[in-house]
Amino acid sequence: MDGLIRHLCRLLEGLIAFALAGMVMLVFGNVILRYGFNSGIAISEELSRWLFIWLTFLGTVVCLRDNAHLGTDILVSRLSPRGKRACLLAAHAIMLWVLWLLFTGSWAQAELNLQVRAPVTGLSVAIFYASGIVVAVLSAIVLLSNMWKVVTGQLTDEQLVMVSESEEQAELDALTSRLATLRTGPSTVSPDRKEQ
Q1: Is residue 144, in this structure, part of any structural domain at all?
Q2: How many structural domains are present in the chain?
Q3: Contact call for residues 16 and 131 (beta carbons, < 8 A)
Q4: Looking at the domain assignment, is residue 92 inside a domain?
Q5: d(CA 196, CA 193)
Q6: Half-sphere exposure (CA, 13 Å, Cβ side) for 11?
């Protein structure tokens, strides 16, 4: 399951890069055409806004998999391993409930707006709301995979705290993990366990 999620996140990262490149080309091209040639790309604003929404929503899935979302671990980090597991399962259950709300709300909005056309592109506005559906499903897969790891005891005590206190610490942890993987090759044992 981890391999499937890893490949899925690589695909999402490619789509995010494509969306970002598309936004840059549309917005920058539109600026050049407006100021240089008194012209413009009519669909630029609408399409770049939709790309930005999809980019942001897909990015949340990648961040969820990498545990890159910011949070506070002041309480959880002081708990016993059993307490950490209980808190992690409770937090994931609450997130699954919120994802269910996002899914049902996005589905209802997509159905309502299926025949509504965007003013400039003429595309269905349901595409806008479909981002919530896709993110809810993909995020639920990541959360269920994490919950399975907790239940089966595949996570170390350090991995049971899945939040970062600061962006700098999260970036440092990610770089340290990548460096350890490059030195030793891919492994199922964490670098902390190898040192012990």
Answers
A1: yes
A2: 1
A3: no
A4: yes
A5: 5
A6: 7
